[in-house]
Write a structure and sequence with these properties.
The chain is α+β, with helices and mostly antiparallel strands. The protein has a single domain, classed as Fervidobacterium nodosum Rt17-B1 like (Heat Shock Protein 90, 2-Layer Sandwich), CATH 3.30.565.40. About 30% of the residues lie in helices and about 35% in strands. It has 6 helices and 13 strands. A 5-stranded mixed β-sheet has the order 1-3-10-9-8. Strands 2, 11, 12 and 13 form a 4-stranded antiparallel β-sheet that branches. The chain starts with a strand and ends in a 5-residue tail after the last strand. About 45% of the residues are buried.
């Protein structure tokens, strides 16, 4: 699992990334993620049904359980740390659980010691999706001082418990790397068009330099993918902007994908 250190649009990917608190869904404009939304997303883990029959459908929540949750309040805003655990019996799943436990353990240790939480963390949350035999888990850790979010994305085959490579995930989504990158480039360009239109500053070379880097092959080749509800391909990508941190991360829908084989 790789660590992203710049601003990626998050479709799904089994890697670490740091991000500004924006989330884009297919066809929508960006909205800032609030602590309340984070909590709601945790309480309502995405559960995609995989059985069209009368038999009880298997859901993501059958494979991902919460093992501990703690909350605290800062300036009237409530934050929480949620630790999920992936219930697959495989070395890859155990490695993912260990990585998540290490992050949450640091926060829980401080909480148990009564330390000043607002200066340590703004919480963690997760989303889990099940599409046929593909389990995607997105875990997010928000830093206290700069609102940077580290995303950890894991994709598994539920039969073997093994991690799924990006190429295999894209194939299951009815796509391939070049097609997905082309669609993602369109999404990032649309994102920049909107941000530039909303900016109070006059368009300049700085804006276009930020765009040029963000849609470059060098940058978008680091984007990672996952499958959200209804087998929709999502991506996390890094982007550069003209103010604030050097890089940010964002999430976007790439495009609705084909049914899995």
């Amino acid at each position: 699992m790789k660590r992203l250190v710049c601003g990626l649009f998050a479709a799904a990917f089994a890697l670490t990334c740091s991000a500004c608190s924006f989330k884009l869904n297919v066809g929508s404009s960006q909205t800032e993620t609030t602590a309340t939304q984070q909590s709601s997303a945790t309480e309502a883990v995405k559960q995609t049904e995989t059985s069209p029959t009368g038999v009880a459908a298997v859901k993501a929540a059958d494979y991902v359980k919460v093992v501990r949750t703690e909350s605290w309040t800062s300036n009237g805003t409530e934050f929480e740390c949620v630790q999920p655990e992936i219930g697959l019996d495989s070395a890859d799943a155990k490695a993912a659980n260990a990585e998540i436990a290490k992050i949450c353990g640091r926060i829980f240790d401080a909480y148990d010691k009564g330390e000043d939480m607002p200066y340590l963390s703004k919480g963690t949350w997760y989303e889990a999706y099940l599409n046929s035999k593909t389990l995607s888990v997105v875990f997010a850790d928000r830093a206290a001082n700069n609102n940077v979010i580290d995303y950890y994305v894991y994709n598994f085959d539920i039969d073997s418990g093994a991690k799924i490579s990006d190429d295999e995930l894209l194939a299951r989504a009815g796509s391939d790397r070049e097609t997905a990158k082309s669609k993602l480039t369109d999404r990032v360009n649309a994102f920049f068009d909107e941000k530039i239109a909303e900016s109070s500053a006059a368009p300049s070379e700085v804006f276009e330099e930020a765009r040029s880097y963000s849609v470059s092959d060098e940058n978008l080749s680091q984007a990672k993918y996952y499958l959200a509800d209804n087998n929709i391909l999502m991506a996390v990508y890094r982007y550069r902007w003209v103010a604030g941190a050097e890089y940010y991360y964002n999430q976007t829908g790439v495009y609705p994908s084909l049914p899995q084989f």
